[in-house]
Amino acid sequence: MAESGSLVDFSGSLTSSTLPPPRTRIFKIIVIGDSGVGKTCLTYRFCAGKFPEKTEATIGVDFRERLVEFDSEKIKIQLWDTAGQERFRKSMVQHYYRNVHAVVFVYDVTNAASFRSLPAWIEECKQHALGTEVPRILVGNKCDLQDSVQVGTNVAQQFADVHSMPLFETSAKNPSSQGEGTCVAGNSDHVEAIFMTVAHKLKSQKPLVLSQPHTGSVGTINLGRWGADGGDGAKSWGCC
Ligand SMILES: Nc1nc2c(ncn2[C@@H]2O[C@H](COP(=O)(O)OP(=O)(O)OP(=O)(O)O)[C@@H](O)[C@H]2O)c(=O)[nH]1
């Protein structure tokens, strides 16, 4: 370590143009659940700010990201929108489970089968070494379809409690029309709040390994299947 005198001399030659660019932390969050539960719509709404007019079944994995700022620190939230259909995900699975910082499990509140599938998704995570030490949340989507609800808040909350996850009920289509489940009431842009909550949680944890020079991009991009990796996993998670 340089003594303070030599440090002063040396720092005189250091200008902002010679310093490395500020680095942006990246949080890799995978979004999983049955086909048709709305994973693409949720990730699109968060990254592009609107409900997509048209979606097609995801093949493999789509990758969207958004740059956000917390306490003057820029953070890139990278959402990996995975295919729900088995035939579109097989070859890809082990790649998108690498270096994950958080997992978002999605079910469709109007589709009980998608809720019953959750244990299988949790099991798949476990098989890829993603246990309870990785922050996880449960999202019940399509709450705008109130007349068709098949999965009540109580049963979803019980499931969330058993698995130590916070539960959010929302709608990618109309985020202000969510039901009355835990953590949901009165938020006018709930999808935003869900992903920001996860990012906030991750930010307050151990610094991540992977970072990259700040490019200032905001919004949705699709880099294809092998676009990016995250860093070390975050270590703990409390219910909201
Ligand atoms: N009413 C309503 N429809 C939604 C909502 N979210 C998604 N949808 C619709 O549900 C269908 C499936 O949505 P996707 O986002 O493609 O579902 P996915 O989970 O990504 O499906 P896969 O890519 O096959 O895994 C589409 O027709 C969407 O328009 C929502 O919050 N409310």
From TrEMBL:
<keyword id="KW-0449">Lipoprotein</keyword>
<dbReference type="GO" id="GO:0003925">
    <property type="term" value="F:G protein activity"/>
</dbReference>
<dbReference type="InterPro" id="IPR001806">
    <property type="entry name" value="Small_GTPase"/>
</dbReference>
<keyword id="KW-0636">Prenylation</keyword>
<dbReference type="GO" id="GO:0032482">
    <property type="term" value="P:Rab protein signal transduction"/>
</dbReference>
<dbReference type="InterPro" id="IPR041822">
    <property type="entry name" value="Rab33A/B"/>
</dbReference>
<dbReference type="InterPro" id="IPR027417">
    <property type="entry name" value="P-loop_NTPase"/>
</dbReference>
<dbReference type="GO" id="GO:0005794">
    <property type="term" value="C:Golgi apparatus"/>
</dbReference>
<protein>
    <recommendedName>
        <fullName>small monomeric GTPase</fullName>
        <ecNumber>3.6.5.2</ecNumber>
    </recommendedName>
</protein>
<dbReference type="Pfam" id="PF00071">
    <property type="entry name" value="Ras"/>
</dbReference>
<dbReference type="GO" id="GO:0005525">
    <property type="term" value="F:GTP binding"/>
</dbReference>
<keyword id="KW-0472">Membrane</keyword>
<dbReference type="InterPro" id="IPR005225">
    <property type="entry name" value="Small_GTP-bd"/>
</dbReference>
<comment type="similarity">
    <text>Belongs to the small GTPase superfamily. Rab family.</text>
</comment>
<keyword id="KW-0378">Hydrolase</keyword>
<keyword id="KW-0547">Nucleotide-binding</keyword>
<keyword id="KW-0488">Methylation</keyword>
<keyword id="KW-0342">GTP-binding</keyword>
